[in-house]
Design goal:
alpha/beta, Aspartate Aminotransferase, domain 1, Aspartate Aminotransferase, domain 2, 2 domains, 7-stranded mixed beta sheet, 4-stranded antiparallel beta sheet, 14 helices, about 40% helix, about 15% strand, globular
Length: about 375
Amino acid sequence: MFTVPPCIGSLTPYLPGKPIEEVEREYGVSNVAKLASNENALGPSPKALAAAREACGKVHLYPDGSAFYLRQALAAKLGVTADEIAVGNGSNELLELLVRTFLSEGEEALTSANTFIVYRLATQAHGRTCVEAPMRDHRYDLRAIQERLSRRTKLVFLANPDNPNGTYFTEGELLPFLEAVPRDVLVVLDEAYVEFVSARDFPDGLAVRKRFSNVATCRTFSKIHGLAGLRLGYLVAIPEVVGYLDRVRAPFNTSLVAQAAGVAALADEEHVARSRALVENERPFLTEGLGALGAAVWPSQTNFVLADFPGRPGKALFEALLREGVVVRPMGGYGFPTAQRVTLGLRAENEKLLTALSKILRA
């Protein structure tokens, strides 16, 4: 019998969205609409796809461990220096590296309840404590988080916009909070969905970090660029933070194919514009359609919406939708037992969801 540390034994594994192939096998359905994992409905950047195909001819070689060309391309795009950029096997790896690197025994991470669950899972997996402040109306309450700062706090995770709520906090809320945070506490702005934001009072994490050296901004190629399957993310921070992460990360943590695709995706402005336009069109359509079916839908700044169906247990509704060939994400694990997170798909996929829901809810 093997034993593991209590922090590992008590972990609940992260459950991703159900794959299309699995749904087809289990439920005997076809033409499945997967609206569960906040993927780009338009697929990958065509330029990235072409670069990835070309790079496949070199996969007998190890990738560039420093991701030189990718970091140079990111630096030019973002207006920073290459030594301010760390890249990872998805932004998820970077979040875990931050915990491994900056939290010592007896120190704590701080975040919100009901936010991206990986903050808590990564902290727990490394035997550290994650303190959570309550949300207010599905939004981060930065005052409540500030009240929970202590001498043990060394990391603060803030998802903006938030996953799974889709909501955001404003620049007017963020700046006073950052003023109150000690400079030896690293504040991580997780901006995985920033390219979909349209709110004018949304704070630009890259601009904010120019004022606060203890702020790091984390972003991903999985959403707007459509490269979720290649696992590629990046973090922008002062060189000192990046240097420490480089000491901890695996030697070849991003693949040769992912690096090539990432460079090409940054140059594909047409794909970014089309992806953003799709979300801007489908977000109000799906929000109104779900509301007409009796769901409470929170205003979103992302490529998904959180929809609550009062009196409808989330797991049962999720499984009923699977039988109709639609995959969404039940939110019981996030503290919302009657809610579903729904990715914005193509119009035909969104219509299929609404038709299926109408059938199920009226049965």
